[in-house]
Write a structure and sequence with these properties.
single chain; alpha/beta; 4-stranded parallel β-sheet; 42% helix; 12% strand; globular
């Protein structure tokens, strides 16, 4: 059995990946909440405690600056200690909410979920606590998740990080069970 680690920024992604594992859309594995673009891992981090066969890093692209790329390169270097070969980057276009909107082919998630208030914080709270992904996500629409990495790839090229560019994969072809 493969030892798999999923790393993503927040509670919303954690809940979403729990749903994906329980629904048998992806292989089971550990999930760690960590923002690889904005925080530096320390050598003592629990993320770095166990050797892994595969590491999937889910990245938001709404805050891209030089410092974020430097932090990401640093963190990937540390992750190579636990997984020298199979580190993959899954790119969320902007953030999870934007990605979910694309997956569901829905322009307004607040309307879709019939939220009383249409604020970003209400939507985030709903996605982290209340939404039933099993009612809205199917294998057919899930293939659209993390499928638009072009803008991020261009940024990596512009910043001379070709080694990271080669680590970008599509969710459907890399982690989704067939």
């Amino acid at each position: 059995m493969s030892r798999i680690l999923y790393i993503a920024e927040g509670e919303i992604e954690e809940r979403f990946f729990d749903f994906l594992k329980v629904s048998d859309f992806i292989c089971s594995g550990r999930f760690r909440k960590f923002n690889l673009m904005q925080e530096k891992l320390s050598g003592a981090s629990d993320i770095l405690k166990k050797i892994m066969d595969k590491v999937y890093c889910v990245l938001d692209t709404d805050c891209i600056e030089k410092v974020n790329f430097d932090t990401l390169v640093y963190n990937i270097g540390l992750l190579k200690r636990i997984c020298p070969r199979n580190i993959f980057l899954l790119i969320q276009n902007k953030n999870f909410e934007n990605e979910l909107s694309y997956v569901l082919e829905c322009k307004n998630l607040c309307e879709r979920f019939k939220l009383k208030h249409s604020t970003q914080s209400d939507l985030k709270r709903h996605l982290a606590q209340s939404v039933s992904y099993s009612r809205i996500i199917s294998k057919n629409n899930l293939v659209r998740y993390c499928r638009r990495p072009e803008e991020f790839k261009d940024e990596l090229k512009n910043r001379h990080h070709k080694s990271l560019e080669r680590k970008i994969v599509l969710f459907e072809s890399s982690c989704m069970k067939r």
